[in-house]
Amino acid sequence: MGRSGIDLFIEDGAYTTLSSAVVILVVLTLLFSSTAAIWSMSRAGDTQVAADSGVLAGANVVSSYHTAATVVDASILSLGLAGFATIGTGLVAVLIPGAELAAGDMVDTGIEIIKTRNKFAKSASKGLQKIETALPYLVAARAMQAVSAQDANSVTYTGTALAVPRTSESDFVALEGSEISTDAIEDTSKDLERAAEELQEASEDTAKAKERAWLADCGRSDRDSVGSCSCMWERAKRLAGLLGDQNPHYASSITWEPQVALDRARAYYRSRLANEAPLGSSVEMKAESAARKAFYTYASVEVNRAHITEDGNRVSSYIPLLPRNSDEVRATELYTDAAWPTSINGGKTYLHYGTGCPNYKKGTPGGLASVSAYDGREKCNKCHFGVSSLGAVAAPSTSIENGFEYHFDKFKDAMEDYIECRNKELELERRTEDEADRAGNVFDQAIKALSGERPRIAPPGRNGVVALAVSGDMTSPDQLNSSFNTAVGLGSRGAISAAVLAPDDATAQNNVLSRFFSTLEERSGGVAGALDGVMDVWGRLLVGYGDIQGSADELVDEMIDGLGGSSGALGSIASWLGDTVSASVAALGLEPCDLRLRKPVLTDSANVIKSPGSDITGLSKVQDKLRSIPLGVTDPKALCEALDYQVERTISGAVFTLAEIPLPSGGSIPLTIDVATLVGALGGGS
């Protein structure tokens, strides 16, 4: 009997028709039931997908706010540094000839940048605080929109996301009270500009006087094209045969110093004195030689006493006036020294050039006397020696270019002007140093305002976002229903998801600022292109925000070095002030900034629910609230209230401007939030 039952299915080692039919029925039943099961599980998973989409969308709102707040902080700090870099460079430029014309504009531009920065800081503080109060609502609205977008196949998904925590711990006091006064800088820069201008004029006068003295000493050469080659250097070479170190030549007044002329004069008169001899055997020739020897002796003593001394505060000098005529001889020791022999002839006493005078030999020798004692008295009829003899020595050599004394006299006149100009220059130099010191101190005090605490960015949702999503009842589609299975019905389903912001490694192409500006270019087209002209000073600091201190140090040094160097008093003061400005910037000690992008990543919801500051109750109560979400709600505020989570829509309008980044060249870049994209399509309450 049992054998006969088996035989119904097996016949001669093969399956019967009946067995094949049963197998087909079983397969069809399993196929349709498995398809229904797969459809059922898939629909249940769709709810989780909706929750995941909602939580990522909500967390993206927090991420976008964090990016915008970082851009605002970067803009404010870098704008302030750009202003001070421009001011500091302008202050140094005031002291550099050739750059001083642009210096005033640089300082004014820097001051305007600081004022712009002050306005921006205030408006940005208000904008950031306002957006933070609306952030929980915006998170909820954006998540609701993302969940609703999952609607398909007549299935409605409803859900939202809750920012954890709901309250902000951001601190914007650093922005609200960060106004930087530029009044002192403005006043100081004007005082420094006036002092530098006066010093520059005095330096030019000193240089002109020095050049005239140089021209008298060695400013011409044998190769001069003007046909005249006379100067102290040339006359010393021709008249005294001085060469080499005793008679150096300088091609420029810049490398030449007045002491060169004094040393040349000393060598010249030593040589003339040592080599002086009568030009003939006559008494007159011998008398003239004696007068020249006396003159050279006197000149040698006087130029040895000559000096030009500068102690850093004042220049003192003594340059002798070598007598050019009898009247000037009377004002010297040549007139008063008892150095000449006398004799009595015919009851009268006469003055002689020396004992070699024939009348001296004929008469009775007397003592030595000065020419002053015999001035106006009858002269010896042989040597005719007297004050006029001494006055005649330098008269021709002083009045014509062929004489050494002519050029020495020019040198003396020029040096008198030089001493006067140089002393005035030193006085103005001290005044300019004082003004530069005051400017450096004012700059240092003003820039310290940038070293204070920066705003703390801790918005709602900083610990994460929790999303809750539900879907309505549904049955399996007719295509899946057959006589092999019954229709599958699914009740309402719910899912919870959570996300946190995880920092992404920052690179030159992947950071907060690069992302912001690339997005800005996509949104605004030509506006971002305008940044090319702005990103000179401010732009370099802005994109270098990650290492803001290093960027500021490098840029300021580069700007100051770009002014070029300068010699003289102004150059040394400019160098000192440049070092002071650079030191003030370096002393800020700004910490490197975190430019990493915050990207939403899914996480265990328990991690967010239990995070510090969370006002969401335990997971079990969250699940209870999940079941209470009414389907089809389109008002984020109403949905959040159903979850005992209070939010407020504090921002109205289609677009909210968080802040406007002012461009130093004019205009601004708005940081906007498209509120309509988040909540406009949702309708609902306000």
Task: Provide a descriptive summary of the structure in words.
- The protein is an alpha+beta fold.
- It has 2 domains: 46-172 and 455-682, no CATH class; 196-413, no CATH class.
- Helix content is 55%, strand content 12%.
- It contains 23 helices and 15 strands.
- It has helices at residues 2-7, 17-93, 100-148, 173-176, 183-218, 232-240, 258-275, 283-305, 326-329, 333-336, 358-362, 387-399, 404-447, 512-524, 526-529, 531-534, 538-543, 548-561, 568-586, 605-609, 619-627, 636-642, 675-679, and strands spanning 10-11, 14-15, 157-164, 307-310, 315-318, 340-345, 348-351, 364-369, 464-471, 474-475, 489-490, 493-503, 598-603, 655-662, 668-674.
- The strands form 6 sheets. It has a 4-stranded antiparallel sheet.
- A hairpin with a 2-residue loop joins β6 and β7 (348-351).
- α2 (17-93) runs antiparallel to α19, α5 runs antiparallel to α13 (404-447) and α6 runs antiparallel to α13 (404-447).
- The longest helix has 77 residues, at 17-93.
- Residues 223-227, 523-535 and 680-686 have low confidence and may be disordered.
